[in-house]
Fold these 4 entries.
Entry 1:
Amino acid sequence: MIKDLTKGAVLPIILLFSLPILIGNVFQQFYQLADIFIVGRLLGNNALAAVGASAPIYFMFLIIAFSFTGGLTAVTAQRFGAKDEAGVRSSVTHSIRASIVLSLILMSSLLLFLHPVMHILNVPDSIYEDSYNFIFILGMGMFLMIGFNLLSGFIRALGDSRSPLYFLIFTSVLNIIFNFVLIKYCRIGVIGSALGTVTAMAVSVICCILYIRKNYPILHLKKADWKYDKKFMREHLHIAVPMSIQFSILSLSIMVIQAVCNSFGENIIVGFTIALRVEQLATQPLLALGLAIATFVAQNYGAKKMARIRKAVRQTSLVSLIFSLAASLLMFTYGEKLIGSFLSEKNSLAMKVGASYLAVSMMFYFFLGMIFILKNTLQSMSKPFYPVLSGFIELGIRSFAAIILAEKMSYAGIYWASPLAWLGGSTCVFIGYYINVYKKKSTSTPLPA
C-alpha cells in the first residue's frame, strides 16, 4: 500500500513502517542462521568454516548492491514526497540503467579477482575449493540480488514496507527448502547452499516484477520515461556512488578482520562465523530503524519538512537505545548457548571465541544503532560526505584492531575491531548531522527540476 510519510505523528509512522522491515530482515537472518545450521549439522565444521572463510567477499558484493540501490531509490522517494509522479517513473528507469552497469562490474570483478582475494584472506588449503565454489556461484547470481533490492527499494520509496516483507519471507523460506534438499538429498555439499540461494532469488525477482505490474500504476513505465537525462542520472549517482563507496570501505575492513581471523585456524573461523550471524540477528531492530528513517527522511526532504526530520532523529535515537540494551541483555544471557547449538561436535574453543566476541561487542550496540540512523538521514538528504568519511574511520580502526591488537592479544584482539569502529564511525556521523541538519532551522532547498 502506497503511503505518504510527510503527514501524521512522526514516531508511530516510523515504527509502523519499520516493523515489516524488521520482520523481513529477521526472516532473512533466520535463513542465514538456518543455512549455517544445515551446513554445520549435515556437512560438519570444515564445511561451515569454508562458508565462513569466504563470507566477507560475498558480504562486500551484497552490501555494495544494497547500498547502491538504496541510494538510487532515495531519489525515487524524494520525487514521491514532492508529488512528482513523472519524476518517480524517470527515477525508476535511470535506476534500472545504473543497476545493470553495476551488475556487470561486480560479476566481471569476481571473475578476475576471486582467486587473488581468497589468497589475501588466508583461506586455508583444506577448505579452499569449497570456499571458492560457494562464493563463485553466489557471485554469478549477483544480478538477481541487485534486482531484488532495487525492486524492493522502489516499493519502499512509495511508503509501502509491507510488500517487501512478504517477498523476504517468501525468499527466506524458499532458501531454506532448496538448501536442505540440495545438501541432504542431492548430496552436492557446500555448492548446494549457494545454488539454493540463487534459485530462490530468481523466483522472488520474477514474482516481485509481476506484483509491481499488478499493484502499482505509478510505476507503470511509458516510452517517455526511458528518456535519458544526464543531469538526473548524476543526481542518482551523487547519492548511490558515495553510499556504495562507504559500504565498500566497510566491507574491506571486515575482510581485513577475516584475513587475520583465518590465520588462526578453522576453530577460530567457526566461532566468529556463528557469533557474527547471531549478532546480526540480535541487531536487526537497529537496522530496521535505519532503513525506515531513510525513506521517511527522503520523502520529507522532498517535501521540505526539516522539522519533522529532526524530530524523527531525536525520537528514533531514544528507541535505538532501548533496543540496544535489550539486544545486549539477550546476548549476555543466551549468547554461548546459541553458538553451541550450531555445532555438530561440541567445540570448546569455537564456543569460547564466539561467546567472548559477543561479550565485548554487546556493550557498543547503541553506537551501531546511531550509525544506522544518522548515516541514512544524511544520505537521504543527498549529504554523503560524513557517511563516507565515517567509512574510512571505521576502516582505519578495524584494520588497527585486527592487525595490531591481534598481534599483541592473539585472536582476542579481533573482539575489539568492530565495537571500536562503531564508536569512531558514530562520532563522525553525529558531527555531520549536527553541522548539516541540527543547526539548520530553515527548510531544505527545493529539489532540482
Entry 2:
Amino acid sequence: MKTTALSAPHLQNEEAAFAYVEAKLWANGPVCPKCGTIGQSGRLQGKSVRPGLWKCYACRKQFTVRMGTVFESSHVPLHIWLQVIYLMNSSKKGFSTRQIQRTIGGSMKTAWFLGHRIREAMAEGYTPGGPKLGGSGMTIEADKTYIGGKSANRAYGPIPPKRAVASLFERGGRVRSFHVPNVTANNLYPIVARHTHSDSRFMTDDTSVYSAIGRTFKGGYETVNHSAKEYVRDDAYTNTAEGYFSILKRGIYQHVSEAHLHRYLAEFDFRYSYRIKAGYDDMARFDRALMGVVDKRLTYRTVGGGGTAHSAPF
C-alpha cells in the first residue's frame, strides 16, 4: 500500500516522536530544563519508564523534551501532537477545532486547546525586538481589511461586528498581521515603525493613514489610487496584500473571538510566510513550526483570557 505523509514514523509511534523532537530541539545534546546543563543526562530505560524520560546528572532531576514547550502538562501523546501540527501546517485554509476533534478523537476542549497552543508556536516576530520586515532594496506593502460576518447572511439578531486587521507584507517574503481597535494613523504608525526597516520601499493604497509614516522610508513611498480604479502602476501595487486577504477571508473560521483573533492571524501569517514559493513544502513548514514550541507554554487561563506575548496590537 502506498505510504502517505502521515505514515512517517514520528507521526505514528511515540518513541519515534520523542526521538524526532529531541533531534530538532536538542541539536547539541539533551538540555535539562531544571538547571540548563547540556549533555550531562542519560536516558532512563526499563519497561515501567515512560517514553522520552531522561535524568540530569548535574541536578539529579528527571525530565523530557516536552518540558518548557507547548507540549508540557498535556496527556495527549506526542505523536498525536505532531500529527495536528502537520495538519495545521499543510491546510492552506486552516484546520478547525471540530476538525481536529473528528481527526484525533477526544473532547472538543482538548482539540481547542491543542489548536491554540500550536498557533502560539507558529507566532513569529510579533514581540518587540523581533526581526524586522524588509530592508535596503526590498519593498513593504501595507494594507488593512475587516474580519467578520456579513449582515446579509444574518437571519436575525444584531449585525455581527467587524474586526480591523492591519498587515505588513515583505514582497516575496513574510507577512505580519495585527488586530487593531480601529484603523487610524495613531494605531498604525507605531506598528509600521516597529516591524519594518526604514531602508525599505513602502507601498500602500491611497488611504491617508499611512502618509506620515510613509514619508520616513528611505527607499521611497508610493501609493496606488484604488478609488480611481488604479491597481498597478509599473511595479507599484498592493496585490500581494489583496492575494493574502483573499486566503485569510476564505479560511478564517466561522466564528473567531476577538480575544483569540491574534492567534488565528499568526497561524495564517505563518503558513503564508513559509509557503511553497518561499521554498517550504508541508514537512519543512512542519519542522519550522516545531522549532517554535519552546518557551511558549500556555495555561488554560492564558488561552481563555487571550494574554499572550503578542496579544497587544504592537
Entry 3:
Amino acid sequence: MQDGSGGTPVAPTRERNVLVLDLSKSMLAPLPEPGTEKGEHQKVEVARTAVFRILQDAANSGSLFGLVTFTETVRAPVPLGEIHKENLPYIENLISLLQPSGRSAIWDALAVGADLLRMGTRGVQGNLVLVTDGWDNASQRFDVRTPAQPTVQSGRVDLVPYLLPAGSNLTLRVIGIGSGDERDKGVDGVRVGQLLTQMTARAAELGLPAAYSFQEVTTGTQLFAQMVHAFIDVGYEDDRPIEELHPEELARHAANAARALKEPQQHATVSRLHTASQAAATAYTEAPDLEVDVIAGSGGATTPVYLKERYGPLGEVVEAYLGGQPDRALELLQRAAPVLPPVTRLYWEARIQFARRAIVEAARALLQAWGEVEKLPPSSQTRILRRLALLQARMQNDKETETLVRFIDETEHRLASSGPEVRARLLDLFSRLMELRGTYQLTQLANAGDLQDAAVQHEAAVEVVFGQLQDARLDLASAGPVAEGALDFLEICLAEMR
C-alpha cells in the first residue's frame, strides 16, 4: 500500500492470495511420473489435490484466499476471503465439481484475479498465481503486447498496466505445464516471458517492487509441489516476529545483540559475517537447490505440512527431524546425500547431530559447511552464512550472536515484499551498526594516551549512524510495523554502543 504522497508500498497485514487455474479441455490430459511407481494422473486431478491442501493451510493460517477458473469463460468460484474450517467441505465439494472444457482466456482470467486483489487507490495488493498448460486463444477484453505487435488489438485493454497500477504490491507467479514450443503442446512460454518482462519494466517505471517468476513443470509431482510452494511457506525456527515483541522485550533483545558487537573474543562469528557482507556486492538470491532455510515453526508447533512434496528427499529428512526422530533423520540424510548440495547436506547433518547430542560430529559437519559456503559466489553467501551462524550460536549457547543475526535475518526475510529500497535501507543500517565494532574496540585496546581520541572517534561514528537512522525513520514512516520494529532495535543497539 502507499500513503497519499505516493511513497513506498506497504503490504497488507494479512496475506492475500489468488489462484488463477486453467480449466480448458487440455487439462484432462495425463501428466507422466517417469522413474516412479506412481500412475499417471490428469493435470486437473493433480491441481485439485494441490488446491485442497492450499485451502487447508489458509484455514489454519487465517490468510485470505480466492480462486479464479477459466475456459473461454472466466469465473470466481471462491471469492477472496477468509477460509473457515467449517466451510472447507462445501468449498472442496464445489472444486471437485469443476470440469475442464473449451479453450483458454488466460489474459482475461489474470485481470479478474487482479480485480480480486484490487484495493482502490492502493492498487493491486497480494499474491497472484497462474497455473496453465496452454496458450491464450479466447480472451475478449485484454491483450499482451509483443515485439511484433507493439500495441494491443483494437478494442482490447493492455493487461500489464491493468495488473500493476500505481501503488501496487503484486507478486505474480506463473506455473506452466508442459513445453510450449508448439501450440497445444504446453504453456506458451514465449508470451509468458514477454508478459513478465513488461511487468518488470513497468514496476521499475513506477518504483514498485518486482516479484514475477515463471516455472515450467512436466510431471504431476512437480505441478503439485510448485502449486503448494507458491502459497505455503515454512517459517524459521523459534521465529518471533519483530512487530509482535513488547517494547521491553525488544529492548532486552537489542541490549543482548549489542554485546555481540562489543565483545569480539566471545562472539567471533559476528566478525566473519561482517566480512562476508562487505564482500557481497549484489543482493542475496539463494539458488533453488541450496535448501538451508527449511526450518520448523516455533517450539511446540506442529510439523509444517507437505515437506516431502515440496522438498523431496530433503523434506523426508526434515520431517523425521521435526518429528523427534534424529536417528531416522540421519539415516534418511545419508541416503539422500548423493542428490543434495554439500552445503545443504552438511548443514542438516550438523543440526541432526546436535539434536542427537553428538557435539563433536555436529561441530565437524558445521565447520565443513562453512568451508563449502566459501566456494560459492560472494553474492550467494550472505544469507546462507547467517543460517550457519544461527546454528553455531545455538550450539555454543551464544544468545547475543543469535539475537543479532536473527534480527538481521528476519528484517530481510519479512520485508521481502516491501520493496528493495526499504530492505536495502535497513540492511545498510545493520551493516553500519556492525562497522561500529571496530571503533568501539579502539576505545578498549588503545594505549592510555590515545584512549580519549579513540573514544571521541567512536562517539562521532555512533552519531553519524544515529543521524542516518533518524533520516530513515522519516523516509520509512509508512513502511509498516516490521520496519518500525527494526528501527527501534537499531536505535537501542546504538545507545548500547555509546
Entry 4:
Amino acid sequence: METKAFPPETELEYWKDRAAYLETENAQLRAENSALARRVKELESQVEALMARVLKLTQQVYGRRSELSPKEKVFVGASFQIQNNGRRGQQQGAKGHGRRKHLNLPAREEIHDVFEADRHCPRCGLPYDPFPGDEISEQIDWQVKVERVVHRRKRYHKTCQCPGVPAIITAAPPPKVIPKGLFTARFIARLIIEKYVLGRPLYRIGAAMRMEGIWRRVPW
C-alpha cells in the first residue's frame, strides 16, 4: 500500500490527515469485500444448480426408471443426502420370505456321517445310538461337464459257408452333424447357444474350453 506524502505543518494535523486517509481506504476495502461476498454467494448458487443438473442427467443416463428407489440422492450445500419419499421393498426389521426351494431342479443326496471314533462317549466309551431325523440343508451346484464319448461298434463274423454275404458285419456308425466331425450334435448346439443366444465371443468360448482341458489351443 502506497503511503501518501503529507506536508509537515504540525504533527497533530499530520496524524489527522493520516487517519482520514486510512478511514477512506478502509471504507473502500469494506465495499470491495461486500461485493466479493455477494459474488461468492452467486457462484455457490450456480454450483448447487449445476450439481443438481449433473445428478439428474446421471440418473437419466445410468438409472432405470423401473428400478428407481424411493430413497433419492439430493444435493444440499456441498454434500449429498438421502431423502426417503416412501416405503417400498422389505423394511428393516421385517420378517423375510425365506429362501426359494428350487423344487424344479433334480436332487442329489450326499450322506455326511459322524466319524467312527467320535460315535463313542469320550468318558465312558459307550456308543451313541442313531437318533431319528437328520439335519438337512441344501445347496445349489452348477456343473460344467465335458467328456469324451467313446463309440464301440460291435462286429460279428459269419459262421456259415454261404457265398455272396459279408464275412464280417459292423454296427452302424452314430449320426453326425458334420461327416467325420469331432463334435456331437449336442456340443454344436451348445456352441450356437453360447455364440448367438448368450452373445459370447469366440475367444471367450475358447478360454472356457481351455479351462475344461479340451485343448491348449482352440482350432478356430
